[in-house]
Amino acid sequence: MKVLTSSTVVLLVVQSLLVVFLLLSGIRLFESSVALRDSRDNAERCDRLATNIQRLRRLESVADRGESDLRMENGELVQIARQCAIEERQMTSIQRLDPQTVSETDYQRRDVVLSLQGLRLEQIIRFVLAVERLRPSVRSTGLVLLPYTGPRHRSLVTVDDPTEDNASSVSRELWTAQVTLTQLVYVARSVSI
After folding, report:
1. Which of 29, 32, 41, 115 could crosslink 92 through cysteines, CB 3.0-4.6 Å?
2. Is the pTM of this model over 0.70?
3. Per-residue pLDDT reduced to its tens digit, 32-43
4. SS3 annotation, the chain
5. How far apart are CA 100 and CA 141, in angstroms?
6. How far is Cα 41 from Cα 43, in angstroms, rounded to an integer?
């Protein structure tokens, strides 16, 4: 058997340490290359997300241009009223309230208050339902009814009602109504990067 000298033992230990060092260096190099690849992938993903964010922020101008499509115009309200047998003179005012931001959202609440006078309750109901049907984003959120005290200061009038069996004259109550129509509209925030 061959006897190992102290210099041979030292040489074997140094070689073993070098092999371990090389193995550890190879592992670290591999981990570094994986980390570098992940960093590049993350940087590309961040660039794509930043591009998407910029594109979405520019949509505000597109949304502003389309706002007139969302807003219910006075003429449209008058036309719907006519379809519900409400004369233009019976719609005494259309008041648009200032938009209110819905807290912690990108939405605005836009209210329109309509004053109507001398109408039967069924006309008011038909009108509100017609608005909601034609404009699904609009909802009636308020209704105040008061007895109509028109020119003759009475809330009961006689009208011919062909829906009655004998088509005779019947009494119908007339009302003054204040209808609040509400629409929630998305408004993109203006934030610069």
Report:
1. 115
2. no
3. 999 999 999 999
4. CCCCCHHHHHHHHHHHHHHHHHHHHHHHHHHHHHHHHHHHHHHHHHHHHHHHHHHHHHHHHHHHHCHHHHCCCHHHHHHHHHHCCCCHHHEEEEEECCCEECCCCCEEEEEEEEEEEEECHHHHHHHHHHHHHHCCCEEEEEEEEEECCCCCCCCEEEEECCCCCCCCEEEEECEEEEEEEEEEEECCCCCCC
5. 15
6. 5
